[in-house]
Write a structure and sequence with these properties.
By secondary structure, this protein is mainly α. Helices cover about 70% and strands about 0% of the residues. Helix 3 crosses helix 6, helix 7 packs across helix 9 and helix 14 crosses helix 15.
């Protein structure tokens, strides 16, 4: 018995001393950086194994267990239950008869195991970040470095081919698919904004090295999203975040009488003004984008899937014309039509079909005996919430949405007691991206569950 106590004491000593939290958060930052990079599965698995074990070691120490048990509330119990329900239904599909074949089942089992590991890592990362909240923004530094590498690829292409920026081919990206880069960038900007907001709200001194990082990130993301990836999802995300950040700062300035002091807040002022310029640029892009012009009419045509059946195979039939005779942009039509069809498929099978890839197309193949569907490019609804509902069921998708929304509301209500506003901004970014991005497959689920537990821990009020 004494030997077991000594082991626990040693674990506690390792965790609470020797800057263990720095090394842990450094490893988490590395994992966040490579999570959406192709051909990194081996390194991801190694990091996830090490971080999961480290998190479990932290929680088995008697001190930490007692702290969490004493602070648990009815709200916490409900969140834990919803997390378990979401994971359960992934496991249900992984181990049930719904899988097509052995390889499909192995894929789902792998997703289930890694999602569970991500939950554990998120709890550990949240706990350690509470000890060092100033490190919040630097969790995304690895993503920042990789985006700089993306920039160097473009510069090399420009020098070699003398191309205009608009002629660049994003297929050369280290990210496999636009949504991977957009998703990583979303997490990065959420971490940066949380630090910017905290420094302003708490009137903390800003270091010049932080300022360079804060200003560099939005510039880089603007370039990556708008020029390199041509991502409407990315542009809209930056636009909404800029609005929310500026609105929040205006609110606390007016209603909490927090004013700028040139000697103390000049760097904060520069950052806020810079984000205002970012907001203006995003607003101009949206006003002049073919995707956003006439968006209501485009959406109404897309949602009317009975009248306009081009969605069956848009690569063959193309998008329909609007009632006014105006051609509708392909991506605008597909987003609305696929979302509408996806909702119909969910109503027909609310428990999900359990196929992890091509969620919409799998649902259509199960419900329609149409030869056009087999060659259709209706693969995803372009909404992770809908895709997750198609694959793992409405309960899983609804649980994820409710958790993010509940953490957001609770964090806003207790903002003065939070050590970092990261749970607010990460919840916002996840709600936006999971609503308008097809981020529901494989590693995306791992990141989603990591963020769920991560922000849940950070949202616990502290009176210190």
């Amino acid at each position: 018995m004494s030997e077991r106590l000594n082991i626990k004491d040693r674990i506690t000593k390792i965790i609470l001393k020797n800057n263990f939290e720095y090394y842990f958060l450094l490893a988490v930052g590395l994992l966040l950086a490579i999570w959406t990079i192709s051909e990194t599965i081996a390194l991801r698995n190694i990091l996830m194994t090490i971080l999961s074990i480290a998190s479990l070691l932290m929680f088995i120490s008697k001190k930490n267990i007692n702290i969490y048990v004493k602070q648990i509330s009815t709200y916490d119990v409900l969140i834990y239950m919803m997390i378990l329900v979401a994971v359960y239904f992934i496991g249900y599909h992984a181990f049930s008869y719904n899988s097509f074949d052995l390889s499909e089942m192995n894929e789902l089992v792998s997703v289930f195991i890694r999602s569970t590991a991500s939950l554990i890592i998120g709890f550990g990362a949240g706990y350690f970040l509470l000890l060092k909240p100033r490190l919040t923004a630097y969790l995304g530094f690895g993503i920042f470095i990789l985006f700089i590498y993306e920039l160097t690829i473009d510069i090399k292409v420009l020098n070699e081919a003398s191309l205009a920026v608009s002629a660049l081919d994003y297929s050369k990206s280290i990210y496999l698919g636009k949504i991977n880069a957009v998703f990583s960038g979303g997490i990065l900007i959420a971490l940066i904004i949380s630090r910017v907001f905290d420094c302003y709200k708490k009137q903390q001194q800003v270091y010049l090295k932080e300022l360079v990082y804060w200003l560099g990130v939005p510039v880089l993301l603007f370039y990556i999203y708008y020029y390199h990836l041509r991502s409407n999802t990315g542009v809209l995300t930056l636009f909404l975040l800029a609005i929310i950040l500026l609105s929040s700062i205006i609110y606390i300035s007016i209603y909490r009488s927090i004013k700028f002091s040139i000697n103390f807040n000049k760097w904060n002022f520069i950052v806020v003004f810079f984000y205002f310029l970012l907001f203006t640029a995003m607003f101009w892009i949206i006003l002049n984008s073919a995707f956003w012009k006439n968006i209501i009419e485009n959406a109404s045509v897309g949602f009317d899937t009975k009248t306009y059946k081009n969605w069956i195979n848009t690569s063959k039939f193309g998008p329909p014309d609007a009632p006014s005779g105006r051609p509708i942009p392909m991506n605008a039509y597909e987003r609305a039509a696929y979302a509408s069809i996806g909702i119909d498929m969910i109503i027909q099978n609310p428990i999900g079909h359990g196929r992890s890839s091509e969620p919409l197309k799998r649902a259509l193949l199960l419900n329609y005996n149409d030869t056009e569907i087999a060659s259709s490019n209706a693969i995803s609804t372009h909404s992770a919430f809908l895709d997750i509902a198609l694959t793992y069921g409405v309960i899983t998708s609804a649980s994820i949405f409710i958790i993010f929304f509940a953490v957001l509301i609770k964090s806003v209500a207790n903002i003065d007691q939070l050590k970092t506003s990261a749970p607010i901004w990460i919840a916002i970014i996840m709600l936006i991206m999971l609503s308008i991005g097809e981020a529901s497959r494989k590693h995306f689920l791992e990141i989603i569950f990591f963020c769920l537990s991560f922000i849940f821990v950070l949202s616990k009020p502290s009176n210190k």
